[in-house]
# Entry
Amino acid sequence: MQLLHIDSAITGEQSVSRQLTARTVAAWQAAHPGTRVDYLDLAVQAPSHLSVESLGFRTGQAAATEAERNENALSEALVSQFLAADVIVIGAPLYNFSVPSQLKAWIDRVAQTGRTFKYTDKGPVGLAGGKTVIVASTRGGVYSTSEGGQAMEHQESYLKVVFGFFGITDVRFVRAEGVGMGPDAKAAALASAEREIATSTSEAANQARVSQAA
Ligand SMILES: Cc1cc2nc3c(=O)[nH]c(=O)nc-3n(C[C@H](O)[C@H](O)[C@H](O)COP(=O)(O)O)c2cc1C
# Structure
């Protein structure tokens, strides 16, 4: 089994989401011995924003310049890496009500017609189904417990839509929210996330996914 571990937090050693992705990957490996792990640190090496040079995968036009060739190669490497993974563990902190722009830049590279989705006469069809995505979601405030909060966050809701669009229905969340609301709230959030790590990485959770898909 191939696991792709992605971090996107810009907060270095203080990062809560990095702590949670590391714990999640370790727990997954313990429950699924032999899992191979590929690592992508988007805070260190984020793809550039889409530009006229990097739109080749959308227009289908052959690269005419060195810059276009380089951009195409990067998009191809990222989408291939994503497609090769059975499980993707993503650290996705809430920054300004959404995901870090580094993570958005990665999504823009893997959202490719003919690779992760296609359009048909019946509408869009995801091409990357059968994968498991585990999102380590961290938030300074609390958003999950009220309709107002849920409407304000464009992080978990956005990721669910994007991966759903790619055909991935098994999107699990390990959430620590309220980490900016004092030490007690942070400790409770981490304890709750720890419980979610245990349930989302267990073999039982995986079996449930497999029988659901069958
Ligand atoms: C640039 C920035 C923007 C943030 N924006 C929000 C926000 O919109 N809502 C919120 O509840 N917390 C916000 N926070 C707090 C983070 O969600 C919280 O600190 C979380 O732990 C971040 O994950 P990390 O520790 O992995 O970086 C923000 C933090 C940073 C650094």
The first strand starts at residue 2 and ends at 7. Strands lie at 2-7, 36-41, 87-93, 117-120, 123-126, 132-139, 170-177. Residues 66-84 form the longest helix (19 residues). The chain has one domain: 2-213.
